Amino acid sequence: MKKLEPYLFANGRADEMIGFYQQALDAEVQIRMTFGESPEPSPMPLPTGWDAKVMHATLKVGDAQLMISDGDTDKPANHTGFRISLGLDSQDDVRRAFEALSAGGSVQLPLSQTFWSPLFGMATDKFGIGWMIGVNA
Prior knowledge:
The protein is of the alpha/beta class. The protein has helices spanning about 15-25, 90-100; strands spanning about 5-10, 30-35, 55-60, 65-70, 85-90, 105-110, 120-125, 130-135.
């Protein structure tokens, strides 16, 4: 296996999600294509007016990629059963990312020292995406 990359479905909020991760994680947009820009029509039925919605986006986050799409529905997204693990090099980086990602969301485990990391915490961002953020050991 070469790599494993998260692909998030934003259910109509992809541009908002992309902007949030650009600020919170210093993410760089590599690709952003709307349904209207696709060379082929969508194989799935889409909500009316979704030509300007994001069919596919790739963000570069450090050495990793995070992919995002509006998907095929405008119903609220349900992101449960997983968390994205974010390993950073310094406690300052962890504090900054934790504060940014938890803004408008919720904190499940405040930042603290653990036996595996000098600083680690868990939060859910305003899109319902769970994060585990810590200093790389």
